[in-house]
Amino acid sequence: MTEAVQTSPKSEIRVARAPTRLGGGLSREAAERLMNLISPVFLIGLWEIAAQVGFIDVRFFPPPSKIFKVMWTMIENGLLVKHVMASLTRLFWGILYGGIPALILGVSMGLYRNLRMIIEPVISATYPIPKSAILPLILLIFGLGEASKIVMVATGVFYPILINSMAGVLEIPKVHFDVSRNFGAGKLQTFRTVALPGALPLIMTGVKLGVGLGLVLIAIAEMVGAKSGLGYMIWNAWEILSVETMYVGLITIAALGLFFTLALNEIERMIVPWRAAR
Amino acid sequence: MTMTTLKENAATADGDIKIKIRNLYKIFQTKKGPFTALENINLDIPTGCFFMIVGPSGCGKTTLLRILAGLDEHTSGTLEIARPAKDRPGNSMVFQGDSLFPWMTVWDNAAYGLSMRGLPRAQIKDVVGHYLNRTGLSKFHDLYPHQLSGGMRQRVSIARCFANDPDILLMDEPFSALDEQNKVLLQEELLRIWEETRKTVMFITHSVDEAVTLGDKIMIMTAHPGKTKIMVDVPFERPRGVLELRARPQYGELVYNIWGYLKDEVQRARALDEGRDS
Known about the structure:
The structure holds two protein chains of two kinds.
Chain A: H1 28-52, H2 64-76, H3 79-111, H4 113-126, H5 135-142, H6 146-170, H7 174-182, H8 187-222, H9 230-239, H10 243-271
Chain B: H1 10-13, E1 17-30, E2 33-46, E3 50-54, H2 61-69, E4 76-81, E5 91-94, H3 106-110, H4 112-116, H5 121-134, H6 150-163, E6 168-172, H7 180-197, E7 200-205, H8 208-214, E8 217-221, E9 228-233, H9 242-246, H10 249-277
Helix pairs in contact in B: 5-6, 6-7, 8-10
């Protein structure tokens, strides 16, 4: 391991450590990102072998090679893309409609004690209600169309982002708010220059949790009264007993989950650069 | 009360008063009843004076500074600060410990006050560039605080304070967390930068050495309740060199005398603390 320390004439100026390189010439970051891929690839390999040697019942657990064949046909005829796009569109609007109010309300609740005192009980009381349990109610209110799916995702995304945004602001050392006051920052400037960036690490945690929950909820919501989307695809596969299609849906959701996690980690690296050394 | 000084220094000679405090009290309401943090503080601080406050920990020094900064309110008494130029900020503070925004680069931290005031970009560039240069930080302008040593971070804090161009500089034990060598270096730098403008400074410290090295006037405070024990004038001419000053016999004498006043207070504060614990 090499540590690059640049020393100025005044002897106490230190520059951050250069990225550590592992044996293969990969930077530590690249190696860590590669490690994220090891476990899913290993699991799929194990499954294929177990199915081929008859160790598991292929009626319930068809070999991945067969699943991927079905997947390929579904990609070729455009069916998979259609379902994925339907789900992603709902997910996108759900995250937007749930996430942005949650972010603004959460940061404001962190900033203003009175607002927190008024709203926190409602949040604490409604948070533990399983979001899937309110699907019938949402269907009743918003009907069988797109709106109910988007609302479902939005309610799921709302809580983790709100709670983490609030916690993020509350964790900011008080001295930072003293600085913003002392240097003449107004309310909006304090929001923009202190509360929001200070809470950003925890907000990103909330977004990751929210997106994960959004994927769960969109699949559930699409199983009832939808004619497109991954949830519909899985439910439909069960009705026509096409086990492979069911797995195609599950794998696609898993792949989306992995993709979102990696993408959000990447975004976090870009917008929270000061966290790099922690 | 005895005055240790003989010579009137340049700062007091021009006569006009920058900060005038009369019968100032600060009483906190605690569960155990009212707690007097500051009792009957009376001060006249001339324009351009480097005013030092020394006292045992918990004597209300920081409270007094925060009241001057407008971050806390006093309970009774009057506080007048002469404001000749309304367009410049009244005061800027160097806070104790880490007060830089971890999410901003050195440059953005130093420019904080100016950008909050919405000054033209070119002007911000000139001023911030100047003070980063004076504090030896120009090369490190795009680093984040976590990439800097403690001494560097305090330099940024000082640059941020001076760049804001306030009427009064408030400093709350800015060097207390630094090692001895760094402390001397930063004291010299602070004096050098201060010589450019000779603004009124109120500087809090628990170090008698620091008070004598930097100050024109020293207020020694008692503990519980915090009030003025004695005022001492520092007779040394400016500009000063920190190490040359310390080699002088008068320097040692003055430090020794001040320690005499302070020792009783430190012991009394400790006795009070121990009494409270049992």
